[in-house]
């Protein structure tokens, strides 16, 4: 651990004390041996003491020096990266419910697989995250505004209904509006909580036009999200061989990975590809870790303090056992 990993690195100067104790002990032992060799009967000395104690007589001193080192590190306030639950964040989950989600290339259907995975994601999200839900097809609807209550969101996901067309841009704009409204209410001295949009879609935008650069298009909305500091995590869900039957005709509904990748890139978000139900669950699990937790430097002195105290107790115990005195 480098010095940057301590809150009070000046205390590490006490390690010099441990070094001095070690040096002093070595010198003392040498002086004691020199005197013993000068004045003692060598044959008698070997019989009476040297064979009986040997190296074990150094154990108490070694434990004492180790305890000094450990307790010094504890005083210096070591820190370590720890994963802690977020206590404030806003997430809008936007789910595509266009007719292409009826495709069964991901069994039992894209929508059913999406509902199952999204519900699991919502249930597992940490309590401090305010989560909202938006569904979009030809238009976008805010089904659940940001809230820490999960039951209503799960129910809304289970009741998602298919509709015609795909207005991806409208879904993003609606999510941004919901985040802005919520942030204006809960924003305090620390400012509004960090926000993110999780966008799951399987097809190309067709409403109001297929042009992503339309004023209400997906790319335009992604730029608005970037300006607002709200990254979009996109999940491109589906395969290249998906089809749907509408009024007796079969239509191909190939997933548009590139459009979803660009939406994420424009907004400084992340792109995910899911071509199966298991992959979608893995994506949501990864997002749950990113959204629900953050890495912070936390106090890590307790283990050092505990070990240092244990070493000190062991030093006293072995000293009493071996030399019948405290060190």
What's the SSE blueprint?
Blueprint: H1 15-39, H2 42-53, H3 59-75, E1 79-85, E2 89-96, H4 110-124, E3 129-136, E4 140-147, H5 151-158, H6 168-186, E5 195-201, H7 218-227, E6 232-237, E7 243-246, E8 249-252, H8 257-266, E9 271-274, H9 277-292, E10 293-299, H10 301-323
Parallel strand pairs: 2-3, 2-5, 5-6, 6-9
Antiparallel strand pairs: 1-10, 3-4, 7-8
Overall pLDDT, averaged? Answer: 88
Per DSSP E runs of 2 or more residues, the count of β-strands stands at 10
How many domain modules? Answer: 2
CA distance, first residue to last residue: 30 Å
Number of helices: 10
Secondary-structure-based class equals alpha/beta
CATH evolutionary superfamily of the largest domain: von Willebrand factor, type A domain
Q: Specify the helix fraction band.
A: 40-55%
Give the structure's gist in a few sentences.
This protein has 327 residues and is an alpha/beta fold.
Describe the structure.
The structure is a single chain. 47% of the residues lie in helices and 19% in strands. With 327 residues, the chain is of the alpha/beta class. The protein folds into two domains: 3-78 and 300-323, no CATH class; 84-297, 3-Layer(aba) Sandwich (Rossmann fold). A six-stranded mixed sheet has the order 4-3-2-5-6-9, sandwiched between helices. A two-stranded antiparallel ribbon has the order 1-10. Strands 7-8 form a two-stranded antiparallel sheet. Strand 3 (129-136) and strand 4 (140-147) form a beta hairpin. Helix 4 (110-124) runs parallel beside helix 9 (277-292). The longest helix has 25 residues, at 15-39.
């Amino acid at each position: 651990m480098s010095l940057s990993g301590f809150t009070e690195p000046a205390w590490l100067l006490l390690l010099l004390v441990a070094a001095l104790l070690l040096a002093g002990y070595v010198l003392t032992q040498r002086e004691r041996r020199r005197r013993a060799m000068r004045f003692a009967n060598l044959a008698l000395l070997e019989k009476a003491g040297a064979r009986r104690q040997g190296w074990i007589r150094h154990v108490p001193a070694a434990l004492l020096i180790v305890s000094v080192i450990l307790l010094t590190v504890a005083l210096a306030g070591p820190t370590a990266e720890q994963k802690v639950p977020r206590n404030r964040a806003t997430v809008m989950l936007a789910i595509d419910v266009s007719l292409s989600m009826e495709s069964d290339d991901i069994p039992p259907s894209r929508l059913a697989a999406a509902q199952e995975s999204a519900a699991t994601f919502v249930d597992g999200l940490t309590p401090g995250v305010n989560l909202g839900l938006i569904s979009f097809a030809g238009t976008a609807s805010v089904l659940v505004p940001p809230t820490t209550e999960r039951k209503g969101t799960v129910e809304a996901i289970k009741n998602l209904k298919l509709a015609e067309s795909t207005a991806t841009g409208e879904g993003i704009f609606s999510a941004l509006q919901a985040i802005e409204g919520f942030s204006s209410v809960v924003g305090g001295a620390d400012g509004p909580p960090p926000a993110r949009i999780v966008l799951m879609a399987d097809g190309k935008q067709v409403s109001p036009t297929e042009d992503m650069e339309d004023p209400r298009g997906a790319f335009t909305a992604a730029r608005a999200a970037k300006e607002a500091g709200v990254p979009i995590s996109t999940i491109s869900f589906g395969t290249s061989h998906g089809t749907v039957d509408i009024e007796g005709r079969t239509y191909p509904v190939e997933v548009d990975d590139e459009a979803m990748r660009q939406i994420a890139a424009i907004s400084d978000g992340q792109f995910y590809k899911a071509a199966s139900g298991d992959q979608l669950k893995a994506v949501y699990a990864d997002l749950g870790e990113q959204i629900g937790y953050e890495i912070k430097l936390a106090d890590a002195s307790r283990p050092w303090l505990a070990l240092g105290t244990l070493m000190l107790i062991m030093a006293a115990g072995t000293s009493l056992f071996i030399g019948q005195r405290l060190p």
